[in-house]
Batch of 2 targets.
Target 1
Amino acid sequence: MSKGITLLTIVSGLIVVAIAVGVGLYTYTNIQAGNSYENAEKEMNRYMTINDWYSFEVHNREQSILSFYTNEDRSVIGLAEIDVTTGNLGSVTKEIEPNQSFDFVTLHVENKEYIGVHLKERPEDVVYLRLNGDDVSKDFLVNDPENESYTMTYVIETTKPLDGSWSLETLDDNKQVIHLSELTE
């Protein structure tokens, strides 16, 4: 009888130890992931400060942080992404076109394309952005007509490479084209 109780006590103890180790590893992994985002945010802020960039938008993605930014006189726009696990930073900038109703910049990172759009002319009238490509057309809600406020920037994420002929359209609430621009850099 005492061997059975001893064996039961040992098995129960091993189960408790296994659970404690599992919880400890889970907590450690989550803390490390949290530190990764915190470190990536610090690195992104350092990059922005050193280069005198000002963020339009910052997005926490699944494995990265993405920033859509401009310079002080808004003559340049850019996108930067930092991977939270490796710390690798990719960025691109583009001078704005003064006579365009919107400007855009594209960033290719691994299997993703990001398109940062800065609406300059009557952004309050733009409700949708439409991305047109070879056999692809997709609308993105930018400014909800039910909401009185509006945004002047938007970031599109796509897994389709922007090879071939692509265009970006601004649309009103009736999905009528306001302006069209070919996506060439």
Target 2
Amino acid sequence: MDMNSISTKIIELRESHGLSQAQLARKMGLNKNVMGRIEHGNRTLRADEIVKLAKIFDVSTDFILDHQVPPTAEGELLYQQKQERDQLDIAKKVQELIDLTENEPDLNFYGAPMSQEHRKLLANALEIGLQLSYKKAHQEHEN
């Protein structure tokens, strides 16, 4: 059982159901800090917590544990639909690139190492482009 994949699955399930970390913690009967540790892979889930998560998200325990089974429950289908949307969501890809630009220590640009200043410039340019695209998309959606 890989805690990182389980942690990621919990975060994605929580987000696909529109819950904050604090809301999920309350539903689980846990402290928000404990929920944060679970989501960061710093605390292992107990068996009863896996069962609670399955009930909250309407998924099987196999699904939470990342066992490869076809989606059957409503929550599993909702999760799969979110995954498919995310695969096509360019904004998420740009955000991942921004995160990479800001956090990857050995980043190169055309084969040359990037200075911290150049990293910030690139991250800012990507962020501005993302914000402008977001505003444009919402303006078009409203019209």
